[in-house]
UniProtKB/TrEMBL annotation:
SMART domains: AAA
Residue ranges, annotated region (Disordered): 264-300
One GO molecular-function entry: ATP hydrolysis activity
Protein name: Oligopeptide/dipeptide ABC transporter ATP-binding protein
Residues covered by the ABC transporter domain: 299-545
Gene3D superfamilies given in the database record: MetI-like, P-loop containing nucleotide triphosphate hydrolases
Major subcellular site: membrane
Membrane topology category: Multi-pass membrane protein; Peripheral membrane protein
Amino acid sequence: MRRNRLPAPLVAGLVLAALIVVVAVVAPMLWQGRADALSADIRQGPSGAHWLGTDALGRDVFWRTVVATRLTVEMAIAATAIAAVLGTLLGAGIAAAGRAVRAVGDRVIDLLLSFPPIIIALTFTAILSPGRASVVGALGLAFCPQFARLTNRLALSVNERDYVAVARLLGVGRFRVLIRHVVPNIAAPLLVLVSVGFATSVLTVSGLSFLGLSVQPPAYDWGSLLASGLRNIYDNPGEALGPALAILVTGLAAGLVGDGLVRHLDPRGAPPPRRPAPVPAPPRPAPSGGTGPEGGAAASVRGLSVRRPDGRELIHEVSLTVGAGEVVGIVGESGSGKSLTALALARLLPRELDWSAEHLDVNGIDLADPAKAPPARLATELGIVFQDPSSSFNPALRIGTQLTEILRVHTGTSRRQAEAMAVARLTETRVSSPELRMRQYPHELSGGMRQRAMIAAAMLHEPKLIIADEPTTALDVTVQADVLRLLKQINREHGTAILLISHDIGVVSALCDRVCVMYAGRVVEEVSVEDLRRRDVRHPYTRALLAASPETATDLDGARLVPLPGRAPSAEAREAGCAFAPRCPLAAPVCAEVVPALVAEPSGNAVACHAETSTPEVRT
Ligand SMILES: Nc1ncnc2c1ncn2[C@@H]1O[C@H](COP(=O)(O)OP(=O)(O)OP(=O)(O)O)[C@@H](O)[C@H]1O
């Protein structure tokens, strides 16, 4: 893999650090005698014979400072290593644990972080009795919470990224997710903390020795030399200057290494790869024709409910079917339950949520029975495109690595073949210069290009169903139509069914065959797109959405957009009766008490509204 040249601070830091390590290793072997030799020249100032003068016993301060490097650096490295290993394991363990352990772990880390490390180190040292080993152990424990907090926060945030969701959908094991996705994305900040931790350890180790709590005579480190130097500061300032400078230079080296590593490891700092020689585009794969089992559905959901741990229902008995090759939209305001419905189909619901369903399947795979739905199989039947193309790809890996990995993990395709297939898909999804893109990092692609690359990734296995969760919301308006056209083209040419989630009724009416309107966790209307375009809808909420949509409301007669007043109730605020009643112009007394059932009509549409149907069903 080609990397950019090492940044200057990293080079400077590494040179300095290497020098310090060499000195630490060789100094006691070569110059211990000079450092410990007594002479009659006591407390002399700097001279040609003694560059930093001598101490109270006539020993050469320069050589003592040089020899003390080993003990100081050894102790700082040991303390940092203990803190980094223990803290990282602790943080990762808490991130991977269940909710209860996470809550307790977080509080314990918060508590430990509220004490300055030096206080913790002093307390442990006092308990364990002064000495080198106790100081190293105490410092390791004192800095451990900082590593635990950082690892925990980083791992949790990376875990929530869409590319981790995709990896989970693809059935990538926890360990591989950790190695491929979590570690590369948290390594840089952890390395900075290691360098800061090392610099702080040098200071604290020296500080504790300065106080007489660490290295005991006749051994000496920079802290004990500094203590003796301060006692003689008026006779020979050089005696304090030597160890002080050594501490400063070591801290500087650690800082430069940390800063340089961040720049070097961040792929956003890399120069663009050279444009490869143009190669003829591989042939477009032939359309697969029809999909799904004969007469079967690409996805089918019946009675899906999702609950929070406290039992509150977030979505209630949602039912919908996506026929083979059909494009179905789910539309509704923020919080209506669109994404949870889609995530349930991909088996990507957050762990803390509880779900149940009478029936949940993707192209015949029963998702309610994990034994019948091995992740690898689901991964080949289902592709997913998320809203934010910037979080859909792992920022630490090149686009090509991520695309080919999907094929290599699941089908054992050779690298060369996987690359050819990935390039073909990128070409098909109209990603310009696909060979070049394969070698680029996600941040080097524009938003629209990344989203097309994401669609290419979702299409790699020729899935029967693509779930597109707000695929255009994060995009520039100029490329939104392009991405929608691409999805429609895929649907036409491959017969891929699409479940499109959007809050924009204009987007779904442009792309879909059928639309489910959701409100407060329920489907309130299901309508064909022809009826939607004609505005022949029944539910007052769907009418309100249409009236508020610019694409449909700016009529030839100049009708103005009508905003929908109020807000959808949160899960806590939902009461008995129809959740839309407080905002509904047609609300009647029954609406406040009875939840209307979704009633199918002969046309195939369905609506849940007392004003439109006469067979209410009580569901609270
Ligand atoms: N992990 C979770 N824990 C608790 N509540 C959640 C969780 N995930 C989602 N919710 C809640 O479930 C409800 C439905 O969420 P969902 O993401 O499906 O809404 P949405 O219709 O897709 O909205 P948006 O367009 O904003 O994404 C919201 O009220 C949301 O706050």
